[in-house]
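Consider what follows.

. . .
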Amino acid sequence: MSTRNNAAPVIFGEVLFDCFPDGNSVLGGAPFNVAWHLNAFGMSPLFISRVGKDVLGKKVITTMQDWNMDTSGLQIDTDHPTGSVDITFDDGEPRYSIVQHRAYDYIDAEHIDQAGLSSVSGSGVLYHGSLALRNQQSRDALSQLKQHHNGSIFLDVNLRDPWWQKDFVLALTDDADWVKLNEGELISLDAMSSSGTADIETLARQFIDTHKLDGLVVTLGAEGAIALTYDGDLARVAPPQRLEVVDTVGAGDAFTSVLIAGLSNSWPLDMTMQRAQDFASHVVGQQGATIHDPAFYRAVLSGWNL
């Protein structure tokens, strides 16, 4: 088990199995993927989620232990199974069928209190997505964590129909300091985009002003990503022209994990974005979102000063 410290990232949300057309099942879920990478970066994140008392749940626990991840935030649910997602591909782009009433929908605030976790957020980054908040019980648990949190809140928007409501996601945005979303999600959430005349940078700045954010990251698919801050900083990155792609599942989570590392270590925005793009470009050369080879991470970290 990793040792927590006051500035370690706290990662809240779903853990599930991505089930591919060829029959392979890969452990994933955006928050889990982010926590996995951060742990490989040596940052000892606290991952708060919930799994079923089933074979897949045991596999989650064993895999986390083998990766030396802190399991103290992982709850066991005797009524709901571990999460799973069926993945298919359409012209190379992943399509997701997300099953409801999974264990991660029922993350329990009382369990967080009993485990003494509600006060550990400290000054580190608190990361969460939007998918795991489709159920009120998990919403209540996150709200409790936020009440005790003194550091930055990072919202990773993940709009999966029919599991989101615009007003609720916008309320999450108002609570956040940093937000990451893709171009389509920005347009879906930004009332100013209805005119269709503003470019992405203009929409992003309007979004920052409207929701009083410290920063916003907008991913642009094959064109890379753009990051803006309230103070006026701007950074753009793009993937290399020649890129070996096995699949794109988890690329965004890889990108996000480096954003969290950058915020946690006060890297300059340009450095953070370039490292995030480089890492995501490496991850798309693998199947699935988590890599189990420490050498993969050592090669990435060799140029970092963590």
Notes: Residues 251-265 form the longest helix (15 residues). The mean pLDDT is 89. The domain at 10-295 is CATH 3.40.1190.20 (UDP-N-acetylmuramoyl-L-alanine:D-glutamate ligase).
